[in-house]
Design brief:
Order of helices and strands: HHHHHHHHHH
Distance between the termini: 24 Å
Largest sheet: none
Structural class: mainly alpha
Strand content: under 5%
Number of strands: 0
Shape: globular
Number of helices: 10
Helix content: 40-55%
Length: 258
């Protein structure tokens, strides 16, 4: 069973505010420029960046969408669940880190540059902006670096943080102790969450892979790991399912977390 939140802050500081070591409560969401039709339907600020979507294509869109939709679940649960039923503190950071760890290869230069560009874009937001949906992404990358799962060189991205969030991220240790099972349980909770609009299809599929991997069954891959970004279960590139700006075939963008 996952530990539950009691009297704890809901989330570490927004990455765009290096002067604040810890959040004091849920942050208001401002209406910021949005990247896709789906984002516009959400009516909330997100980390999705049009220029990065055009530059890096489907893999970036899937990463941003995963972070966004996972953060939407966190926000929804904070609204409807009582304290004793809340998911573990920082769970959205952990689950995003798991997606990054499985879906991106740090030895692949293109993947490494994509992730670093995505993190930098979030950190470059003005400190006066409210934290956008998906803002846990830099924390997820930072946690991977400190655990030796992403190149140490990426630490330079976080030089602007006056105080590093190590103490808060240490609280994720119980999740990392049995990461496969924890990721599966958290992903199952995400799939059960009533989101409107629903999470993007690639995000739902990624959550489903975590659930099945935790049960010892894979989807597409024998090891149950998430497919590489931009690939279907057969390993083929799925660029044909997306426009250059990250749109699905239904005409709506992948602006939600995946």
């Amino acid at each position: 069973m996952l530990a539950r939140v009691n009297d704890r802050d809901p989330k570490p500081p927004a990455p765009s505010d290096p002067t604040t070591p810890a959040a004091t409560g849920p942050k208001p969401r401002a209406s910021l420029p949005l990247a896709t039709v789906r984002h516009e339907k959400l009516g909330l600020g997100t980390i999705m960046d049009r220029e990065l979507a055009a530059q890096h294509g489907v893999p970036y869109v899937h990463l941003a969408a995963f972070a966004i939709d996972t953060d939407r679940v966190r926000e929804r649960f904070e609204e409807v669940l009582v304290d004793e039923d809340q998911l573990p503190f920082g769970w959205e950071i952990f689950l995003t880190a798991q997606f990054l760890h499985l879906a991106f290869e740090h030895a692949h230069e293109g993947h490494r540059m994509l992730v670093e560009d995505a993190v930098q874009a979030v950190l470059d937001r003005p400190a006066t902006d409210a934290a956008p949906l998906g803002a846990q992404l830099p924390f997820a990358v930072y946690d991977l670096v400190r655990r030796g799962l992403w190149p140490e060189e990426a630490l330079s991205l976080f030089d602007q943080w006056r105080k590093k969030p190590d103490a808060s991220l240490d609280d994720l240790e119980p999740l990392w102790a049995d990461a496969l099972v924890a990721a599966g349980e958290l992903a199952h909770a995400c799939l059960q969450c009533d989101l409107e609009p629903p999470a993007a299809p690639p995000v739902q599929e990624a959550w489903g892979r975590f659930v099945l991997a935790a049960r010892g069954a894979g989807v597409g891959d024998d090891d149950g790991a998430a497919d590489a970004p931009g690939e279907d279960d057969d390993g083929e590139d799925d660029d044909d399912d997306h426009d250059d700006d990250g749109d699905d075939d239904d005409g709506e963008g992948d602006a939600d977390p995946a």
